[in-house]
Each structure stands twice: as structure tokens, then as C-alpha cells.
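This part of the workshop introduces the protein records we will be handling. A record pairs a protein's sequence with a compact description of its fold. Comparing a sequence with its C-alpha cells is the quickest way to learn the format. To make this concrete, we reproduce a full record directly below:
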Amino acid sequence: MKRIILVAGLIAFSHVASAHTGLLPTAGFSHGFQHPFLGLDHFLVMLGLGLWASAQNRLLASQAIGLFLLFMATGALLGLAGIGFAYVETAILVSLLSVGIALSFGTARLPKAIILTSIAAFAAMHGLAHGSEMPVAASAYAYIAGIVSGTAVLHFSGLALGLIAQRVNATGLIHIYGTMTGLIGAWLLFAA
């Protein structure tokens, strides 16, 4: 419990977490691969989607993860082409809040079409942010491939952790993760 309070306190008093700082090198695949791990907003969403998928049937889980990866790559290519959205960072923070709510309260009452449409829209926003902020001199396609690969690793890590939590009757930890993710999303959304 002390560790949870310590982590929550450190997060609460840190600066706005974002993977879009422009401080990382953007040379190619390896730097793109690191990107989802280094921004708190991206990390929590990617891992959270995998955790959420672990509680779904196999078809919905694979559709959700596949759709996220496809639309994130598409969004990155659109951003690379110069297409933008004024509220992309806000949409990313709303995705953080949405993942937190989904993990804390579930999505059983929502129609599958709404769930998958929301996942696709949020994925496109994450990708759009990556693509639009990519420096012109970067190896763009290698960087995008790295981002998609890093995201896939986080999704499947969340999926594996969720399945392990179910086996050892520790799904309460997933709800705690969801609550913390939602609170961080709300705090970042309203602090910005």
C-alpha cells in the first residue's frame, strides 16, 4: 500500500506526462520502438488496452488490438502527410481516461461497434500525434514501424499480465490500475 501511495504521489506532483516532448532522437526503428514506453500517457493506454483485452473473448480481444495497431499506423501516416487535428493531445488524454473507466467499471453494456469505433478513433489520434510531430529528416517508415512494434509489445504484455491476474485471482489489481489510469487521465486533462 505504501508503494501505491508513493507512486501516486510522484505522478501527482510530476510535470505533464507526454511522449511528444521532441527530446528523443528520431532516427529510425529503435527510437520509434522506445517511444510508447517513454511517455506515461501512451504507456498507460497501450498496457491498459491489453489488460482490458484479457477480460474479453478471444475474437473481441484480437479485433481490439489489431484495430488499434492498424488505426495507429494509419494515423501516423496521415500525420506524416500533414493532416492534423487541433485537439489531438486532448483526445489522447480522453483515451487515457476511457481506458481507466473501462478497466475500473467494464464495458459489458456497450455495443461492440461503439467499443471498436472508440478504439479505432483513439488509436488514430495516438498515431496522428506521432506522425505529425516526426521530424522531416527522420526515417519515417522505420520510425512508424518501431512505434507500432513497441505498441504491440505493450498490448500483448498487458494481455499476458491480465491473464496471469485472472489465474491467480488478482483481478482487483487490474481495477486499481484502471482507477489510477483514469485519475491520471483526468488530472492531465484538467491540468493542461
Notes: The chain has one domain: 40-180. Residues 40-180 form one domain. The radius of gyration is 16 Å. Residues 140-167 form the longest helix (28 residues).
